[in-house]
Amino acid sequence: MGKGSTKALFTIIGEGSRFDGVLSVPHSIRVDGALKGRLETAETLTIGASGVVEADVAAKNAIIGGKVVGNMDVADRVELEANSSLVGDLKTRELIINEGALFHGNCSMNDTRGGTKV
User: Fold this and answer.
1) pTM for the complete prediction?
2) Based on the structure, what is the number of domains in the chain?
């Protein structure tokens, strides 16, 4: 495989699977099972409706359909889908909270549009 093909790679922690520890992946990851510890991805983290993540997370983007307990540092965008939950502090550039989602914590947003911060 060449350098350019890594973006097509995808790590999946399937429903019924459990991972404890530190997981670092250079591409996108989907969690439909349970993950506990620390998670780092250079691309997108997707947590399915059955996914439960008890970890501090660092990612480029995050789409949360399940449950997260832990602090998240997401460079670009976080979307909390309906019926998802995030309990922990969040640092991101853009946040979308859909109806029915739960967010309990502090949020810090970076303004990369330029201009003056208020």
Assistant:
1) 0.86
2) 1
